[in-house]
Amino acid sequence: MRTDFDFTPYRRSTVGFDHLFDLLEKGQRSETSDGYPAFDIVREADDRFRITLAVPGFKPDEIEIVAQQNQLTVTGKPAEDDTKRTYLHRGIARRPFERRFQLADYIEVGAASFAEGLLAIELNRVIPEAMKPRKIEIGSGSEPRRIGSSKDKALENA
User: Does domain 35-130 have CATH number 2.60.40.790?
Assistant: First the structure.
């Protein structure tokens, strides 16, 4: 059974959505990963999220978190200090990993904490002031008020 989806017909009939289709195709390819380490994504509020990764056996200094543009990368590289031990059974995976998360626009990575084998990363949606709705004043008179004109600046300074 075919599980992938071909976005070519949509690419031909849309303009400016290339980034969206690239993200969807990349998401389909990444679903075939081995699923290590396990993680949860929780929406705590409309503008706050938390990613929690299960990384038992790792120490905070063995994990690296990098936020770049719209991508969050969490990498774990265990230290080689277990050479002195002889394991009869090793069920806790401590293998190197790299987990990538695609972030939407205006999502910023906040604090990260590590406790009891769980790495928690706080994410916040921060919308720039220019993108927020603003109320436009309605002026009176025959001439419309121009935003940012020299006439407005002269009136403000008077």
Answer: yes
